[in-house]
Fold this protein.
Amino acid sequence: MTHSKYCTTCGAEIRATSKFCQRCGTPTDGRARTPAGGPLLTKPQTVLPWIVAGIALLSLLAFIGGQNFRRSPSAAPSAIATTGAPTQGRAPDISQMSPEERADRLFQRVMEYVTAGKSDSVQFFAPMAIQSQLALAPLDAHRRYDVGLLGLISGDPAMGRAQADTILAANSDHLLGLILAMRTAAMQRDTVARDRFAGQLLRVIDRERAKQRAEYVDHDPDITAGLREAANPSAPAIR
C-alpha cells in the first residue's frame, strides 16, 4: 500500500514514491537531502567553484541581480531580494504555472543557489531547469542563452558551446551568443577562442545594442558584465 507524506517546504501532500513535490518542486526522494543538506548528486562538490573561476563570480552575480525574466503580469514576483539573497515565504506552486513561468522559476531557483554558494543544490536543480527550458522548443536566443548558462553552471561546457554556436549561426554578431561563446572558451581554457570572441564582442557592441532586441533588454546587466570580461584579458582563469 502506498502512503502519503508531506513536503517539508510547502506542506503539500505527496505520494511516498514521489521524488519531487508536485506543488513546489522540492526533492522528496529519501536518498537525496534537501538543499541545506549534503550531496545530492555524485558529481564533485568542487564543480561550482571551478566554473565560477572561469566565468567570473562578480559577472554572474551582476546577471542574477539584474535579470528581467520574461513572464506574464500574473506570474509570481522574483524571489531574489535586492541583496541577492532568496526571500522568505511560502514556496510558489509551480504546478499552477504556465510552462514559461515554470521554466523561469526553476532558472531563478538555480541562480538563487548560485548566489548562496549552494553547489550541491545547483547540481540537483540545474537538470530540472534545463529540461524545463528545452520543453519550450523551438527556443529563441533568450532561452538558448539561459540553457547555455545553466550548462556552464552545472559543469557542461559542451552545452554552453552548442547553444552559443546555434545563436551565432543565426546571427554571427549576436551579443548573447558571443558572451556565451567567450565564457565557454574561458572555461575550456581555450584562450585563443576566448580572445577572438571577446574582440568581436567589443567591435560590434554599439551597433548590436542599438538594435534594442528584446533579449538584449532582458539581459542588459549580463551584457554589461560580459563587456567587462571581454575588456579584461586577465580575467580569472580556471584553476
Remarks:
- The first strand starts at residue 4 and ends at 6.
